[in-house]
Write a structure and sequence with these properties.
With 324 residues, this protein is mainly alpha-helical. It has three domains: 74 residues; 86 residues, no CATH class; 96 residues, no CATH class. The strands form two sheets. The protein has a two-stranded antiparallel ribbon. Strand 2 and strand 3 form a beta hairpin.
């Protein structure tokens, strides 16, 4: 009985599939032809990104050089391109330091370029792209892209022009944008901007203090001797900026929460030590790395090295402020 029912259902299934295929075959063939046509027309770089063929893609970019710009433009203009693939495509433009690639990276600030646009324009700054970036600025009350301001500050157009464009954003609604304006103006030696940097670094709010420290971390333009004095007092700042190691990994492979005594934090002073040692290439007998809490002895050694280099070193943190 079971076999008969199965056979009956199998016959019905075969018949329904046959009828469906008879009706749908022309549409199926047309769809397949369209897919084949789309794949044939797909730019070579797009295929490599789609198949995650990174070695081949880098070799292709090195070979094609500026010829990849139209391919990247086609990829990022395609509404079917995912945000991840889009940022990867923009990233390949960093290997092609031409005006055409810089132009597309500048346009990418508002079209999914992400960090690829930021880094690409810092590595290949072109005055011709400045109007494109400026055209993407929103009013101070609405602007939320700190990196746009920090990138504009590094484009080689007259400093007076950059200062005039950045200054209104000292009153931006977004706190990170205000800090970005402060750092951009300080890079351009605008009077009073160093005092504003001090206020940003002395903020009594954990999130507000992280904003300026992350700019030092992420952007080489501010890791210069010029800004060392403003960072030195932060070597004494114990404010917790980031929780690290909040889970305990047990011998049996399980996890459990750490006790308050076991918890560790990356503090403002740890950020400052990391930045200062990297900025001045200070020779220290311990490793400088991410997510590390440094001992008092290590901090004191760095302070002494700074004194030996002629810097005035304090043992007190900044007085707490509300920031900028």
């Amino acid at each position: 009985m079971v076999t008969t029912v199965r056979q009956r259902w199998a016959r019905r299934l075969c018949l329904s599939l046959l009828l469906a295929s008879t009706i749908a075959l022309p549409q199926t063939w047309a769809a397949q032809d369209q897919v084949i046509q789309e794949q044939t027309n797909m730019p070579s770089l797009a295929k490599m990104i789609d198949h995650e063929q990174w070695d081949e893609a880098y070799a292709y970019v090195r070979l094609q050089q500026n010829a990849i710009v139209p391919e990247v433009r086609a990829i990022v203009s395609d509404p079917r391109t995912s945000s991840t693939a889009m940022e990867i495509a923009y990233g390949f433009l960093r290997k092609v330091p031409t005006l055409e690639s810089a132009t597309l990276l500048a346009q990418g600030f508002s079209q999914g370029g992400g960090q690829a646009s930021v880094l690409g324009l810092i590595e290949n700054p072109r005055p011709e792209v400045y109007p494109i970036l400026k055209g993407q600025m929103r009013p101070p009350a609405k602007e939320g892209d700190r990196d746009l301001l920090l990138t504009m500050a590094q484009i080689p157009v007259p400093p007076e022009q950059r200062i005039a464009d950045l200054k209104p954003y000292l009153a931006a609604k977004n706190y990170g944008v205000r800090v970005g304006a402060v750092f951009g103006l300080a890079l351009l030696d605008d009077p009073g901007s160093m005092e504003l940097m001090t206020r940003a670094l002395s903020a009594g709010n954990r999130d507000r203090k992280r904003d300026p420290l992350m700019i030092f971390y992420q952007f080489r333009a501010w890791r210069t001797p010029k800004f060392v004095p403003v960072l030195i007092p932060v070597l004494n700042d114990p404010m917790e900026i980031k929780d690290i190691g909040l889970r305990r990994y047990n011998a049996d492979g399980s996890e459990s929460a750490m006790t308050p005594e076991e918890r560790r934090y990356l503090r403002a002073r740890d950020y400052a030590l990391n930045i200062l040692v990297k900025t001045l290439n200070i020779d220290v007998p311990f490793k400088i790395e991410e997510d590390v809490t440094y001992s008092k002895e290590q901090r004191e050694l760095v302070k002494q090295k700074l004194r030996d280099l002629g810097y005035t070193v304090t043992d007190e943190p900044y007085a707490v402020t509300t920031g900028v």
